[in-house]
Design a protein that fits this description.
The protein has helices at residues 9-44, 169-175, and strands at 70-73, 79-86, 89-91, 94-98, 102-109, 114-117, 124-127, 133-138, 143-148, 161-167. By secondary structure, it is of the alpha+beta class. Strands 1, 2, 3, 5 and 8 form a five-stranded mixed β-sheet that branches. A three-stranded mixed β-sheet has the order 4-10-9, covered by helices on one side. Strand 6 and strand 7 (124-127) form a beta hairpin. The termini are far apart. The model has no long low-confidence stretch (mean pLDDT 90). Bound molecules: copper (II) ion. The site of copper (II) ion (CU) has 7 residues, from loops.
Length: 187
């Protein structure tokens, strides 16, 4: 008997189609359920750490004034890099960090959404106007890394990048002065 010619082949095909229809319906119901649950959950419980900053006064006062950008070392030895992204550059354009020491990045944007990734490391974030993005990472190997903007931000996007110099910890410590903001921008 050729395939599909049996007396029950029609019924078997119907049953198979119905089975697949139910599987597809189940997947759709699952996905819609996930959307509803995550949507309601996130709107009821926004991320616990949201830090905002006033874009209009960013360059005039507070943490992200130009003189405060760059790398700072606190009295307890904590290293913090403060930076801003703007069309089409980062400030500072050259960032100095120590190797083997946790470094906290704090950044925001002045005009539109930017972002950056540091070379082949896991240092990666978006910079969103009005919000402070922060993460802590440790650079393992000394050397220079490129830091391109990775959020399309306009016609000059592809030219928007900075450099990150990872210095051996001792060399970094020798250059870092308390209260000063370090960068490798040529002045
Ligand atoms: Cu950009």
């Amino acid at each position: 008997m050729p395939p599909g010619a049996g007396p029950d082949s029609h019924a078997i095909a119907i049953a198979a189609e119905r089975r697949w229809a139910w599987i597809v319906i189940a997947i759709i119901v699952l996905l819609v359920g996930m959307m509803v649950v995550t949507g309601l959950h996130w709107s009821a419980m926004p991320p616990s750490r949201v830090e905002t900053v006033d874009v209009k006064t960013l360059h005039l006062k507070g943490e992200f004034v130009e003189s405060n950008l760059g790398t700072s070392v606190a009295a307890d030895g904590k290293v913090t890099v403060r930076l801003i992204g703007q069309q089409y550059s980062f400030e500072p354009q050259c960032i100095v960090v120590p190797a083997g020491v946790p470094v906290t990045f704090r950044g925001t944007a002045t005009d539109t959404i930017h972002g950056f990734v540091v070379g082949r490391t896991n240092a990666n974030t978006m910079l969103i106007p009005g919000f402070v993005s922060t993460f802590t990472t440790t650079f393992t190997t000394p050397g220079e890394q490129l830091m391109p903007c990775h959020e399309y931000c306009g016609t000059g996007h592809e030219a928007m990048w900075a450099r990150v110099q990872v210095l051996p910890a001792a060399e970094f410590t020798a250059r870092a002065k308390p209260g000063e903001r370090l960068s490798c921008v040529q002045r």
